[in-house]
Write a structure and sequence with these properties.
Strand order of the largest sheet: 1-3-2
Shape: globular
Strand content: 15-25%
Largest sheet: 3 strands, antiparallel
Helix content: 40-55%
Oligomer: single chain
Order of helices and strands: HEHEEHH
Distance between the termini: 32 Å
Structural class: alpha+beta
Amino acid sequence: MKLSRLQKYILLSIHGIKGKYQRSQLFRFYDKQKKPPKKIDQQGIITRSLERLIDKGLMIGYGRRTPEKWFIDEVKLTSQGRAEAKKLHGRQQSLPLGLKNIRK
């Protein structure tokens, strides 16, 4: 399954926790970046990532509903999400060395 870096971070950070995980803790992803997006953009990006993970069936979102949209406050991994996070822990990261260019 193809996942973005933020989605992988979300799965890995929630993996060790039993119960619900607060959405506000996901903003730590941007603390490590040199040029993080603006705070309002970060909220939108995290919201879209959470909604896409929920659509894929990897997590359950808890929040409140207005007539226009959902506000996700907490999330919890499903069994499929725990399995995907476990795969991510075991997968070794590949380095972009460009071995094809060296052989030519």
